[in-house]
Amino acid sequence: MTHSISSKVKLNNGVSMPWLGLGVWQGRPEDGEHVELAVRTAIEAGYRSIDTAAAYENERGVGKAIRASGVPREEIFVTTKLANPDNGYDAALKAFDKSLDQLGLDYIDLYLIHWPVSAHYLDSWRALEKVYAEGKVKAIGVSNFQIRHLDAVLASGSVVPAVNQVEYHPRLTQKELHSYCSGKGIQLVAWSPLMLGRILEEPVVRALAEKYGRTAAQIILRWDLQNGVVTIPKSAKPERIYENADILGFELSAEDMQHLDALNRNERSGMDPDKFEQIWGLK
């Protein structure tokens, strides 16, 4: 059970990752000051995990805010991701070095393949294994991978992914994938845990918020953590960043957890891993 914002889960290679982090998707380079403010605010609020990606084009601002925070580097867990056009062994190696340079850091805590580009993700995984072996990254993993993708990685690679970061919320509980990852020692991480805010108007969620004296967002984020899922809600608003951090002083009952589970519709707010290549023009 997570009792404070500093609580961590131990990944399959022994590296500790905070249960709660800040996501910075949609913090574009033209909004650099806003990204830096969000990261600075999160660190001041006690967050010690920041999640970005090369595709977000804001790694430079994230790194600047981390370096300016005054918090020792080893206390902040930094995640970034390989962009789709950079999949492939050589391209992924170059992309990793570019992300490291953009962040202005000596190492990355967690590096992920952002999406399973079918023609290249196994070659990309070999590249991630190389930078991991060289000590440039503390842990490697994947994002938006389905069971068949994970099976392929496990069959061809020598390192078990430390995490699988996927869309996860009460309307998309992904129980089969969650069970698979748990069985393989792969930590599930939730992106879009609030479903871009759409889940917050659910009557069940609103009723539970009233029952526990919490916000709807806090109810959902608490559900994530009690399901053993690392959570990285995105926000650029200081008040929401603080609000999202205040989810560790209460616990949902088993019955209420089931009420939230029952909201599942296998509904996505983001791209479907089975269809994203068509959208990206990768097929």
TrEMBL record:
The cross-references to PANTHER family, in alphabetical order and at most eight, read: 2,5-DIKETO-D-GLUCONIC ACID REDUCTASE, NADP-DEPENDENT OXIDOREDUCTASE DOMAIN-CONTAINING PROTEIN
Give the matching SUPFAM superfamilies. NAD(P)-linked oxidoreductase (SSF51430)
PROSITE patterns membership: ALDOKETO_REDUCTASE_1 (PS00798), ALDOKETO_REDUCTASE_2 (PS00062), ALDOKETO_REDUCTASE_3 (PS00063)
* The UniProt record lists the keyword Cell membrane: no
Specify which residues bind substrate according to the UniProt entry for this protein. Answer: 114
Q: Where are the transmembrane segments?
A: none
Name all NADP-dependent oxidoreductase domain ranges. Answer: 20-264
- Family annotation (InterPro entries): AKR, Aldo/ket_reductase_CS, NAD(P)_OxRdtase_dom_sf, NADP_OxRdtase_dom
- What is this protein's name? Aldo/keto reductase
